[in-house]
Specification:
mainly alpha
């Protein structure tokens, strides 16, 4: 090697190191976001007891995050395309860290709900940049390995999140009760912000789509008009204005469709690319993602309340009970993508829906059989069956939905999949007030709490099983043999990538 080549070689090595540092930073941020969801779920009963939160406030602590995340996801991706992915990532992680601090130091349930909504909005700025930065930083031949690492991070977050949340809540560090589940984000967020500013390379989309703030406002308004009466209706005695609001939400969504049509014709940058719904498999897939989000939104919240409030288990005991479920999801997800889907196609996803429904029915039977004396090992079989079914669905579903989408719309379609998934989750959390709290009496004696929560849990699971039956039917419209995924850029909202990263797999963590 000549002396003239040495500086070039050193520069290339330095650039290579920088991109791997950048990868570690954005993966850490993605991990932090994923873990944050599971940590909150496992700590919900502790928050309710310590902070004195009402049932509707408990729902909004989780649903508010999902709603803010869903409403801002596509816009967050487009802002990254326009103003730079590195810049938006740093803004997002700084805001997410600040919101975590506000959650940790919340003086009352109202402040916690508001801080969680802010946290979801900041996640909507941060998360879409993660895969877009990877996409811009690594050449095509290396992305398979990188996305494999991302899939491993998703799996690790699914398993470690509940345990970490359970330990932090159980330990009651410095007498702070549940607050460390949020405060743990502070050192991680500060480090990611400082290192991200140094190692992440800035990138923008060559032809970024314009913002559609009116579309975002209509989506948010429609969801609020639907969710707020659902969560508060039971406490307020189901007033007439609640029904009027839910009916009005349909009119808002109709106005959204009309506006998006006009915006697409005017400047070609709608929030929702309506032409995608002419692709049968995509329309069916969006319905599957939405309904699946509803089922999981219901299940994960009522499951936590059942174990900790109904059965009186500690957060740690509840967290450890969920380990077989997480392991089954991760194992089945890898198996479905690598071996089963290439051979059996759509039937794998349908088998997953049936298997998950069978696990739910098994769980109902076990809960009814053993009552309040049920042990974690007696829950293991239904949880493993449910987890296996879920794993068969979550990993290949995004590829199946995107397989017939035109290449030029892959980015828009990917962002929309993630958005409706979160909207479904928020709707499911709102429905908890109907399918779970709706069958629990208002004034329970201590002796009545356990039986009432166990009965409500089984009632909610009947609804979950029914929803999974609907999902099985909807899946019949997916392609029999999903084509290879296509790469899509555009709007920064997680391009179409291998299944390990598809849809961020937030279903793993509820």
């Amino acid at each position: 090697m000549t002396s003239s080549e040495t500086p070039v070689s050193k520069a290339a090595q330095a650039a290579d190191r920088r991109r791997w540092f950048a990868l570690a930073i954005v993966m850490t941020a993605a991990f932090m976001d994923l873990v944050d969801v599971t940590i909150v779920n496992i700590a919900i009963p502790s928050i309710q007891q310590d902070a004195g939160a009402s049932f509707s406030q408990i729902q909004w602590i989780t649903a508010g995050y999902a709603l803010a995340f869903a409403a801002g996801l596509i816009t967050g991706g487009r802002l990254g395309d326009i103003h730079g992915r590195k810049r938006l990532f740093l803004v997002g992680i700084a805001g997410f860290t600040l919101a975590s601090a506000l959650c940790g130091f919340a003086a009352n349930p109202e402040m916690l709900v508001a801080s969680r909504i802010l946290q979801g909005g900041m996640a909507a700025l941060m998360v879409p940049q993660v895969l877009s930065i990877v996409h811009a930083t690594f050449p095509a031949h290396e992305r398979g390995k990188v996305f494999g690492l991302f899939g491993a991070i998703v799996g690790l977050g699914a398993v470690s999140g509940p345990l970490l949340g359970a330990l932090l809540t159980q330990w009651n560090l410095f007498g702070l009760e549940w607050r460390p589940i949020f405060l743990i984000n502070l050192p991680v967020g500060v480090a990611a912000f400082l290192l991200g500013g140094r190692f992440i390379t800035e990138s923008r989309a060559p032809r970024a789509m314009k913002l559609d703030l009116v579309g975002v406002a209509l989506v948010t308004l429609g969801l609020l008009m639907l969710l707020y009466p659902l969560t508060r209706g039971r406490e307020l005695g189901w007033p007439l204005w609640g029904y009027a609001s839910m009916a009005g939400a349909l009119a808002v969504f109709a106005a959204l469709v009309a506006y998006e049509r006009r915006k697409a014709a005017r400047d070609g940058s709608p929030l929702v690319e309506l032409s995608l719904f002419r692709v049968k498999s995509f329309a069916a897939g969006i319905a599957v993602q939405t309904v699946f989000g509803v089922a999981l939104g219901v299940f994960f919240l009522v499951w936590t309340l059942y174990m900790q409030t109904g059965l009186g288990w500690s957060p740690l005991k509840a967290g450890l009970t969920g380990v077989p479920f997480s392991i089954a999801v991760s194992t089945a997800a890898g198996l479905s993508v690598q071996r089963l889907v290439p051979r059996f196609g759509r039937k794998v996803l349908q088998a997953g829906a049936l298997l998950m429904a069978a696990g739910v029915l098994l769980y109902i039977g076990e809960s009814d059989r053993y009552g309040l004396h049920i042990a974690p090992w007696q829950m293991a079989l239904p949880l493993v069956v449910m987890g296996a079914g879920m794993g068969l669905i979550v990993a290949p579903l995004t590829d199946a939905v995107l397989s017939e989408v035109p290449r030029e719309h892959a980015g828009s379609a990917s962002g929309l999949i993630n958005t409706v998934q979160q909207m479904g989750n928020a709707l499911g959390l709102g429905l908890v007030s109907v399918v779970f709290f709706g069958v629990i009496g208002d004034r329970l004696t201590p002796d009545q709490v356990g039986p009432a929560f166990a009965h409500a849990f089984r009632n909610a699971l009947v609804w979950v099983a029914a929803v999974l039956g609907v999902i099985f039917v909807l899946m019949s419209a997916l392609p029999k043999r999903p084509a290879q995924h296509v790469e899509g850029g555009g709007e920064g909202a997680e391009p179409a990538v291998p299944s390990a990263a598809g849809g961020r797999e937030r279903e793993l963590v509820g």
